[in-house]
Amino acid sequence: MFIRVLVSIMITILSAPILKSQTPQVKPTVSSASEVIRTVEAIAGVWKGQMNANVPGSPPGSIDWTMDCKRVALNSGALCTNGGTAPFGELAESCLLAFDPESKAVHYMCVTSMGEVHDHKGRWTDTKTIEFEPLQAGMMGKQVIETLKWHFNEDGTLHKTSEVRLADGSMMQFDFKGKRVS
Predict the structure, then answer these.
(1) Could you read off the pLDDT of 44-89 as tens digits, one per residue?
(2) Is the pLDDT of residue 11 over 80?
(3) What CATH architecture is 27-180?
(4) 3-state SS record for 91-150
(5) What's the pLDDT score for residue 23?
(6) Rounded to an integer, what distance in angstroms lies between the CA atom of residue 65 and that of residue 81?
(7) Under 8 Å between Cβ of 109 and 122
């Protein structure tokens, strides 16, 4: 019975005429729109390269890494499916990248195959670089601080760094250098 009532309400709402006065007409400013476009254009495509990892207690390693970033929400953001295979198994993450015109910030919101959920917030510091604020997050059941920096080079390469300060003060470092292949 509850389902029928809920479906009836949804049908009524969806079939009701939308009046112009009910739909706010919000237009982004030219600078905000250009920041949205710049952010999406910077990351859209398939990137392939090496993710170098330096983790305390383990020898440094290198992982073949792919980022497949598709435009979403009528080109207002990009959904990136990232992954590779490390010596201990497959790694994957799904991330949404977008410029928020309200806060004038770039957001990179991710969930990983290791159970991490992060919402990085950063800014374009020049025409090719995004620097993200240090993020306090959980990793392996402990609090960490992660800092990201991305640089888009003129030659179609991307250099992403991630530094993760662990609870004991040690540092994990991840360095991705990839080339846009499509």
Answers:
(1) 999 999 999 998 988 899 999 999 999 999 999 999 999 999 887 8
(2) no
(3) Beta Barrel (2.40)
(4) EEEEEEEEEECCCCEEEEEEEECCCCEEEEEEEECCCCEEEECCEEEEECCEEEEEEEEE
(5) 39
(6) 11
(7) no
For residues 174 and 162, the answer to whether their CB atoms sit within 8 Å is yes
40 Cβ contact list (under 8 Å, min separation 6): 71, 75, 76, 77, 78, 97, 98, 99
Strand pairing of 77-86 and 129-132?
A: unpaired
**Single-letter code of the amino acid located at 39:** T
Q: Are 113 and 92 in contact (CB under 8 A)?
A: yes
Tokens representing 110 are 């991710």
Domain ranges in the chain?
27-180
DSSP 23: S
**Count of all residues that appear for the chain in the document:** 182
Backbone conformation region of residue 141, classed left if phi is above 0, alpha if psi is from -120 to 50, else beta: left
Q: Which residue has the tokens 């990232």?
A: 82
Instruction: State the Cα angle at 26 between 23 and 28, rounded to 5°.
Output: 155
How many other C-beta atoms lie within 10 A of the C-beta of residue 42? 21
